[in-house]
Design goal:
Blueprint lengths: L1 H8 L5 H16 L1 H9 L2 H25 L7 H15 L3 E3 L5 E3 H25 L35
Antiparallel strand pairs: 1-2
Helix pairs in contact: 5-6
Length: 163
């Protein structure tokens, strides 16, 4: 109860606060004594802390999706989030050079963003500028959802007056 109270009462919207926090984190990273303190922490404790931290980050992301009513019936949203999530937690890594590898949450985030923008660009082109009759949705309504597969879903059902 107490955590919910503070979460609802205290909200930080200032980007300056995030910049200060980032600067302090960088300074801690450059401080050998802080590094020694982290190194002295048992592996099980650090493992537990990271599990809780990444779990909270994931749930805050889901909370944002729920608050903004992200439509996971839209294949672009579903495929983007699914691929990024699996890449982020699946132990996948991408080696970009001999010394630079992207993995974990960073790789999952990149995959999600790139996939979303590529798919959104492709589907918006197909809806606005069909290049041939094969790109247009079928007028045959025998298969559910076939005719509206490329069009954005309506947020509300049609009103009785429009029927």
């Amino acid at each position: 109860m107490r955590t919910v109270f503070f979460e609802q009462r205290i909200r930080v919207y200032s980007t300056a606060a995030y910049r200060v926090a980032a600067a302090v984190a960088v300074l801690f990273g450059l401080c050998p004594k802080f590094g020694a303190l982290v190194a002295a922490t048992p592996g099980g404790v650090l493992g537990g802390i990271t599990v809780v931290l990444y779990g909270m980050i994931g749930l805050l992301g889901a909370k944002i999706w729920i608050a903004h009513r992200v439509d996971f019936n839209d294949p672009v949203n579903l495929v983007s989030v699914a691929t990024g999530t699996v890449m982020g937690i699946g132990g996948t890594s991408l080696q970009l050079s001999g010394t630079f590898t992207v993995n974990g949450i960073a790789l999952g985030t990149l995959v999600t963003l790139i996939t979303y923008h590529l798919l959104r660009t492709r589907t918006s082109r197909r809806v606005l500028l069909p290049s041939s009759h094969h790109d247009r949705p079928s007028e045959d309504h025998s298969e559910a959802g076939q005719a509206t597969a490329l069009a954005p879903a309506s947020p509300l059902p049609p009103s009785p007056a429009s029927r």
